Amino acid sequence: MILIRVLIIAICSLYIIRSLVRIFLPMLFKSVINKAQEQARQQQQQYYQQQQPRPDGRIRVDYKPEGKKSSVPDSEGEFVDYEEIK
C-alpha cells in the first residue's frame, strides 16, 4: 500500500513539475532574450554617440606610429629596374 502511495505521489509531482516548466520556461527564455536585446541596443547607442560627425573633406588621424627613419631619403623614392622590349 505504501509503494502505491509513493508511486502516485511521484507521478503527480512529476506531472505538476512538467506543467509548471511548460508554463514558466518560455517566460524565462523571453526575459533573457529581452535583456540581451536591450544590452545590444544600449551598446549600439553608446557606439553611435561616441562617433563624432566629421566635416566633409577632412581626414582625422587617431594614431600615428613612430616608425624608423628610412635609409633612402624621401626625395629619391623607389627605383624599379626594367628592360625595354622592342
UniProtKB/TrEMBL annotation:
Top-level lineage group: Bacteria
Keywords from the named record: Membrane, Transmembrane, Transmembrane helix
InterPro entries: DUF4834
Residues spanning the signal sequence: none
Membrane in keyword set: yes
Pfam families (alphabetical): DUF4834 (PF16118)
Membrane-crossing segments per the record: 6-25
Sequence ranges of Basic and acidic residues compositional bias: 55-71
Residues covered by region (Disordered): 43-86
Residue spans of biased composition, Low complexity class: 43-54
Composition bias type Acidic residues, residue spans: 75-86
Protein name in the entry: DUF4834 family protein
Native source organism of the sequence: Mucilaginibacter rigui
